[in-house]
Structure formats: C-alpha cells, structure tokens
Design a protein that fits this description.
The chain is of the alpha+beta class. The protein folds into 2 domains: 157 residues, no CATH class; 325 residues, no CATH class. 16% of the residues lie in helices and 35% in strands.
Length: 490
C-alpha cells in the first residue's frame, strides 16, 4: 500500500516534467527523423520546364506567401511519382491531414527553387522543404507545440527524349483548313530546346544541332544520305554510288499520309499503295531536310487508252495480259525547312516544297539484283522489233527508284523545276492521246491530273508559291502518319 502510494506520488510529481518534455528537441527528434526520408522523384515524362510553369502559376496567386503547401496540391503532385508525406505517397509515416509539406522560398534568391546543374540528359534543382505539424484541438497534452523540420532536397528532372509531331497530324500540310494556311504559314513546333536540355543561343546553332540529331537517330553515321526501307526493315547508307545495307532501327520513325488514287486518262487511273513507303533522306546546303518517297503503284488502263499505253501494257489477242503489265510508282518529294523561336525556344518546321509525280517501269529496264516476275518478247505477235521485256513487282520497282534517283531527284532549292515535271492534259478527250515521256530506257513519266508541285518558291523573290483551287486537292488530303525520332543524348 505504501509502495503504490509512493509510485503515485512520484508520477504526479513528474507529470509537469513530462508535459514540458514533449516540447523538447529530444522528444521531437523521433518524429523529425522520419520527416524527409522519401526524396521527391518526378515522373520521367515531365521536365523541369513543366515544374517551373506550375510554380510560376501558383506564385501568381500566392499573395506574397513564402511557402507552397504541396501535401495535396493538385497542380504539382501529378508531376511526381513520389514526394514524401503527401497524398500520392503510399508509405507515409505521418497522416498528411496533420503533417504538412511545404516548398519554402529561398531567402537568398527569393525563388522557390535554385538551379544546381543541367546537361542534355537531366536538370537538377534544389528545393527547401518544410515538414510541419501544428497540433489543433488536442484533448490531451494541449501544451504540445508540434514540430518543424526543414531540409534541402535535390530534385532531378529528365529532359525530353523525343522530337516530332503528333501522329496523324495534317496541320503541317494544311493548317486548320483555312485559306493559305500551308507551307511557311503552317509552321509546326517539333521540339523545345530548353526541354531537350540543349545549350544553343541562335537559330543556326539550334538547326545545326537538330540536323546532327536527325543524322544520329536515322543512322547516317558518315553517310551522305540514308534510305529507310520500312517495308523490309532495312537501312541503306549512301555515299555516292556506294550503297551499304544494314538493319533498320526504331530510333527514327517517318511515314506520310499521301494521296494514292489519281485520274490519268478518260478510262485510266493510277492506283498507289502509300502504306508502303521507301524513304530517302538527305540535307541540302545545311538549310533543309529533303525527303523523297517512292510507293508502289499500278496504272489501270481502260480500253480507250490501250494504244497510248503500249509502253506499259502488252496486248495479247486485243486485251492486256496482266502478268505482262509493267509496275509503276508514285514519287513524292518534300523539302522541310526549320526555324527557332528565341523567346520560346521552340524548333519549328514547315514544308518549303511538296510535289508528287508518277512513273511506270520501262520494259527494257533490268537490274541483276532484282529477280524478275517474268520476261517476255515484246511486242507480242507478228512483226515489230522484238526485245526482251522484264516485269518486276511494284515493290521492287519503287525500291529501285529510291536507290537510283539520279534521273528524277529534285534539284537543289525549292523551285518548280523537277525532272519529272511533264505536261498533264486535264481535258478527258484530249488526254486519251496523251503519251508519257521516256527517260533513258528506265522509266516513263505518266503524270495524272493534278500531279505536280503543290508548294514551291518563286524564281525571282523566293516568295512562297502554290497551286490554287482544285489543283490543291491532294494537299488537303496529305498528312503525317508518324514523324518522331529519339534525341540520342551526348
């Protein structure tokens, strides 16, 4: 009995000491040790620029506050995988309803963050974080004042890794379907140099860096040009007449939405397959990216036009023999130019030249690297100067054209002077007698209606030129299926 009384007396005597103890550092150290153990980690898809933008927006409405409550902040937290003691953190040591997390303004810089370091891969900033518990309406230990802990935390943001346009985008060809909104008037942003982590200070530096990145992603290495054979998953590096074959990687993805059906003559059509694209890339005078596209096609000849297309079809008993018909191809050239917005740091791209033409294989064209579908003596029947005609698949012909472009590639510059430019007859009756133009026993230019240059530059003042009205119909239906490539970091 006396022992219990003694313990009770001792407890009551020391209760005030315990009340005071809960506000001492020794007691609060237990809680403080848990605070700040989970470092902020941004999502990989968000950059420092995203964070800065949100901070600036919040600061505008902060009314001079020197701290931002992050605990359940709906603008900042979506940028992070984890932050530490917030509503997005599953392994909280504290209840985030009571223990709050703040970003505190740096008194030296008067900013909510400080830049630490940056390179092409990542950017690091320093945040001053405050973990704070202020008791409210405690039923017991009402004298407890809570605790506060401040730490400096380095936060590492990744930079953007990809450059390009949204899939199935058409705005770079014809923006918002508004008059004259094409070419230089429909520039599209493909990247931001700040978000990429590039250190550039001028348009020339930005474009030079961009071209280096394209070459690296597309696999140029030391080649002058490359060919992307997405049909067979092959890459070809071109140096003069030397072409070497390699495996195609997925670091550079390019495909266009291109027109594929055209009227050639009154009863004859061009039917292309632009789902298959053999693409050749080169740079012109360090000013523009030239993209040549060859797609397999077929000239479907009607009875009214048999005679004028004897160089492509072969009549047997008065009708074309399908297996003797020469393949054809659609040839498209696009020239892209670039700009850099110094204030926004945006890289912009636009089409400086866009043209589409059509050719059929010459019956005499052969190549030892291509296995013929068949060969035959032409012309069939009695009479005529016989020669061996060689039929290829349309895929093989398109691929041959993209590898052997010397007779049809567009000259330097953006003028309307393609070797494939050949008169097109739009009058149905007159077109029936219209013949194509043979080129060195290799191919025959057979341009359908409205096959021509749609966008180009004038010869005198380099101003943008274009077709008008119905002549632009194929521009309206063109687009980007995919244009995206990896920014391979230094």
């Amino acid at each position: 009995m006396n022992s219990d009384k003694a313990h009770t007396t001792e407890l009551l005597t020391n209760i005030d000491t315990f009340f005071d103890y809960i506000n001492q550092d020794e007691f609060n150290k237990f809680f403080k040790d848990f605070a700040g153990t989970v470092p902020p980690k941004p999502h990989d898809k968000y950059t420092l620029e995203d964070f800065k933008k949100e901070i600036e927006e919040i600061a505008k409405t902060a009314n001079g506050e020197d701290k931002i409550d992050v605990t359940n902040n709906v603008k900042l937290l979506p940028l992070f995988e984890q932050f530490g003691n917030t509503q997005i953190d599953l392994a909280n040591k504290f209840n985030p309803v009571y223990v709050r997390v703040y970003i505190v303004k740096d008194t030296h810089t008067n900013n909510f963050y400080s830049d630490v370091s940056s390179n092409e891969t990542q950017k690091t900033i320093k945040l001053k974080l405050r973990y704070e518990y202020k008791p409210n309406s405690l039923l017991k230990f009402t004298n407890y004042k809570g605790f506060t802990k401040e730490i400096d935390a380095n936060v590492v943001f990744s930079t953007d890794k990809m450059i390009g346009l949204p899939k199935k985008s058409r705005d770079i060809f014809y923006k918002n379907y508004e008059a004259n909104q094409f070419g230089i008037n429909s520039k599209q942003v493909i990247a931001n140099t700040d978000r990429l982590g590039w250190s550039v200070n001028s348009k020339d530096e930005a474009i030079k860096k961009l071209f280096e990145k394209i070459k690296k992603a597309a696999g140029f290495e030391n080649a002058q040009e490359v060919i992307l054979d997405t049909v067979n998953n092959k890459l070809y590096r071109v140096n003069g007449n030397n072409i070497t074959e390699h495996e195609l990687t997925k670091k550079f993805n390019l495909k266009f939405i291109l027109p594929e059906s055209f009227i050639y003559q009154q009863s004859t059509q061009v039917k292309g397959d632009t789902s298959k694209q053999f693409i050749r890339l080169r740079f012109e005078n360090n000013e523009r990216l030239v993209v040549e596209v060859a797609s397999p096609a077929q000239l479907v000849v009607g009875a009214l036009n048999y005679d004028t297309n004897g160089d492509t079809i072969e009549l047997v008993n008065g009708a074309p023999k399908p297996e003797y018909t020469m393949p054809s191809a659609l040839l498209t050239t696009l020239k892209f130019e670039f700009d850099w917005d110094n204030s926004k740091k945006d890289i912009e791209m636009h089409i400086a030249k866009y043209e589409t033409y059509h050719v059929t294989k010459h019956k005499k064209l052969t190549d030892n690297s291509i296995t013929p579908v068949t060969t035959y003596q032409s012309p069939q029947g009695n009479g005529g100067n016989k020669f061996t005609a060689t039929v290829w698949t349309a895929d093989d012909f398109a691929k041959w054209l993209i590898k052997n472009n010397s007779d049809w590639k567009s000259p330097d510059g953006n003028q309307d002077n393609s070797p494939l430019k050949h008169s097109v007859i739009t009058n149905s009756a007159q077109s029936n007698t219209h013949k194509g133009k043979e080129v060195n026993d290799k191919f025959i230019i057979k341009n359908a209606r409205y096959m021509e240059a749609y966008i180009w530059q004038g010869n005198s003042n380099n101003s943008q030129m274009s077709k008008n009205g119905a002549e632009l119909m194929y521009l309206y239906t063109s687009g980007i299926e995919e244009f995206e490539f990896e920014d391979i970091k230094e």
